Amino acid sequence: MSSQDIPEENLPQEQGAAHGAAGHGSTAVAQRADDNPFADPGLPAHKPRIQDIDERAAKRSERAVALMFTLSMLATVGFIACFVIFPVDKLVYIWPFGRVSALNFSLGLTLGAALFFIGAGAVHWARTLMSDQEIAAERHPIEAAPEVKAQVMADWAAGNEESGFGRRKLVRNTMFGAMALVPLAGVVLLRDLGPLPEKKLRTTLWAKGKQLINMNTMEPLRPEDITVGSLVFAMPEGLGYDDHEFQKEIAKAALMIVRIRPDDIKDKRELEWSHEGIVAFSKICTHVGCPISLYEQQTHHVLCPCHQSTFDLADGARVIFGPAGHALPQLRIGVNTEGNLEALGDFAEPVGPSFWERG
């Protein structure tokens, strides 16, 4: 459709004027500036708030902001208290959520309250106590002129003065307190990364007099049960598959037992800690803690299936190949009055991978 087909009243003003001038010989009418729909309407007249004209109202707002910051501080303290008070396995009934973890619910509630009251206090402060007068600034080049920089600094100083940050010490101090305490919640959460190891990684369930129990038959092992070239896995007496801590304890106490001809044992201490050529070493690889289960009877080498670390059981279980950092710990064994194999103590060094406090 051409402009000739459009009704004249629907054409833009300038085009319609030009069309009229061309078609009827009338003079074009210039568009007046006050008819421009994109003209800057300017800012509405500023209306003062009650806090701007009534100092008592300003004080009430100041106390309200301070109360919110104080509640944030109390919520942060409550977060830390809940972390200490509630055990991790405690469940409570809370409508409408049902049975939930008391620890998780209380931590979420208190931390959420601490963050909420900081935000609410800041918003209330800005809306009731800081200056709300709008200022229009003309656009300027990216590189500011010296006088503009000076004006910015002056505006900053004026804004700081108008915010009352220096005069309203109650708001300022309680805000500092809330902001200083909230990060403590994150510090406390670091404690929940796991229990401190203390010296648990240095010891196992093995102790003097504990019998070696066959992990397949759950019967005490006797010297005659172990033949040359065989590999047997054992665990300490008193530990059962149904125990709540079984996985944690067997990860340190798992034992592999082989019988080597005494003449083939190269390491003097290994021979002294054995019984008639029966040697007991930790089953846990010293690289990343994988269970070792591959034994080559001709060479007396054991291989970790995870990263191929290889240990020589005839030479103190030293590392002969792979990424493992040190030899497998040996358990000193003997025979009790009943003829069963027993431990003569715990491992002399921590089992498994190296760790930072191993020493």
TrEMBL record:
Q: Where is the Rieske domain?
A: 247-342
On whether rRNA-binding is a keyword of this UniProt record, the answer is no
Chain residue ranges for the region called Disordered: 1-50
Its domain of life reads Bacteria
Where does the record say this protein resides?
A: Cell membrane
* InterPro entries membership: QcrA_N (IPR045603), Rieske_2Fe-2S (IPR017941), Rieske_2Fe-2S_sf (IPR036922), Rieske_Fe-S_prot (IPR014349)
Could you list the residue ranges that cross the membrane?
A: 64-86, 106-126, 170-190
Q: Where is the composition biased (Low complexity)?
A: 16-25
What's its membrane topology?
Multi-pass membrane protein
Provide the alphabetized UniProt keywords: 2Fe-2S, Cell membrane, Disulfide bond, Electron transport, Iron, Iron-sulfur, Membrane, Metal-binding, Oxidoreductase, Respiratory chain, Transmembrane, Transmembrane helix, Transport
Primary location class = membrane
Q: So what family is this one in?
A: Belongs to the Rieske iron-sulfur protein family.
This molecule's function is given as: Iron-sulfur subunit of the cytochrome bc1 complex, an essential component of the respiratory electron transport chain required for ATP synthesis. The bc1 complex catalyzes the oxidation of menaquinol and the reduction of cytochrome c in the respiratory chain. The bc1 complex operates through a Q-cycle mechanism that couples electron transfer to generation of the proton gradient that drives ATP synthesis.
Q: What is this protein called?
A: Cytochrome bc1 complex Rieske iron-sulfur subunit
Q: Which organism is it from?
A: Streptomyces albipurpureus
Q: What is the lineage of its organism?
A: Bacteria, Bacillati, Actinomycetota, Actinomycetes, Kitasatosporales
